[in-house]
Design goal:
With 429 residues, this protein is α+β, with helices and mostly antiparallel strands. 36% of the residues lie in helices and 23% in strands. It has 16 helices and 19 strands. Strands 15-12-14-13-17-18-16-19 form an eight-stranded antiparallel beta sheet. The chain has a five-stranded antiparallel beta sheet with strand order 5-6-10-8-9. The chain has a four-stranded mixed beta sheet with strand order 1-2-4-3, with helices on one face. The longest helix is centred in the C-terminal third of the chain and has 17 residues, at 359-375.
């Protein structure tokens, strides 16, 4: 036994080799280091249940892993077992005519959309780097992107879920029929739970048609308030797919360096789609709403701009955070934040980030951003912090006493043994 009373890594590995086979057990690597002491890779839902049962019997902590990028940011010390789901990446059922799909949690969003693209469909939740984002982490971290304006979030498209809960029990909620709302509350509970309540192993979603003639309209502004006013007017005048405002550094770094970004501090980026006539009409409406010249891009140029704002560099920065406030309060918060940003303007959400700052400056920035969010009645979550600045940094806001008590009751009910990713969520849950 180690000094902490836990089995040595070699003994821990041997125990799971006996359970799963040597090919399914390995050392942690890359982002997994610091998240888990040993990595196991079950190939079936039954094997995942066996791993959870063993962890429950032996009081071993575990954490479900996609790529490990998110938990690498928020775990303070490693759990005993990292449960990597890359072998559980099958499409369970896809019904293009019904616009529904059921998949295992190890499949990535990029892989699912590559498959569905052949039918002119997609899962319309667009987290950063979808080719590296598994379905399990999409749900567990409640990830989303620019398309939340027109399509909602993962909660809005999730129609069924299967997870492994306490003592390795398989739990189902919802189903592949869009009208079936059985277990809706349970799906909401699992969304954004960061693996603290169980291991998501399968999910069913509503799919969406891919809009034709995707186009982005860009307009530059000298003042942030003007950019937000134009965004609100544009969203009222046209059914936008997404609507972002980015700071100058991000605007200048966009593929092709759009002319609209060259001589303005802030860049408005609005996404459109539909028939050619519909897109032309929407562009006319935006021109009237914006009151300045706009640049329209389509085809590969539009897709490149979209990918750049979807994959906002906040996650790769020295310090990055997501602020959520009322849309009307977002411009003021960003003005005072003193950071680069990519804002989902009409949704009241923005990614803030700073590069090349030391630990003190990073902590001061987070405190300032968090105070701005709270004054506006919102909240802030740190989404990225390099090792050099992470020590002592609170990644989540502290909720009110009532909300925290409810969350603790949920944790106790779902995970009485406290083995599922303990100690890394809100309030130390």
């Amino acid at each position: 036994m180690t000094a902490a009373g836990l089995p040595h890594e070699s003994r821990l590995s041997d125990a799971f080799v006996s359970l799963l086979g040597r090919e399914c057990v390995r050392d942690a690597r890359a982002d997994e280091i610091g998240v888990a002491r040993v990595i196991v890779e079950p190939a079936t839902i039954g094997e995942i249940a066996e791993v959870v049962q063993k962890c429950a019997r032996d009081r071993l902590t575990l954490a479900p892993l996609g790529g490990g990028r998110i938990l690498a940011q928020i775990r303070r010390e490693p759990v005993s077992v990292g449960l990597a789901l890359r072998r559980c990446a099958r499409v369970v059922a896809y019904e293009p005519e019904d616009l529904t799909v059921a998949v295992e949690a190890g499949l990535t969003v990029g892989q699912l959309n590559e498959l569905a693209g052949g039918k002119g469909q997609r899962l319309a939740v667009d987290p950063p780097l979808p080719e590296r984002t598994t379905i399990g982490s999409l749900i567990a971290a409640a990830r989303s992107g620019p398309l939340r304006l027109s399509e909602g979030t993962v909660r809005d498209l999730l129609i069924g879920i299967k997870y492994i809960g306490r003592e390795g029990r398989v739990v189902n909620a919802g189903g592949r029929v869009v009208k079936n709302v059985t277990g809706y509350d349970l799906m909401k509970v699992m969304t954004g739970s960061y693996g603290t309540l169980g291991v998501i192993v399968e999910a069913a979603f509503k799919m969406r048609p891919v809009p034709a003639n995707y186009t982005v309209a860009l307009a530059g502004f000298a003042r942030l308030e003007e950019a937000f006013d134009a965004a609100f007017r544009s969203s009222h005048g046209a059914p936008l797919l997404h609507c972002e405002i980015v700071s100058r550094r991000i605007g200048l770094a966009l593929p092709g360096s759009p002319a609209s970004a060259n001589d303005r501090r802030f860049l408005l980026i609005a996404g459109l789609g539909g028939t050619r006539a519909e897109v032309d009409y929407q562009l006319t409406q935006i021109r009237g709403a914006v009151g300045t010249l706009i640049e329209a891009l389509d085809g590969a140029a539009a897709e490149a701009v979209y990918h750049a704002i979807r994959d906002c560099p906040a996650a790769e920065a020295t310090i990055g955070a997501r602020i959520v406030v009322a849309p009307s309060a977002l411009a003021g918060a960003l003005e005072a934040a003193g950071a680069e940003f990519c804002a989902h303007a009409v949704s009241g959400i923005a990614q803030l980030f700073l590069d090349d700052v030391d630990e003190q400056a990073a902590h001061e920035a987070v405190a300032r951003w968090r105070a701005l969010a709270h004054r506006a009645g919102g909240h802030l979550t740190v989404v990225a912090a390099r090792d050099s600045v992470r020590a002592g940094l609170s990644m989540f806001d502290e909720p009110g006493a009532g909300a925290l008590a409810l969350m603790r009751r949920l944790k106790a009910a779902f995970d009485p043994s406290n083995i599922f990713n303990p100690g890394c969520y809100v309030g130390g849950i």
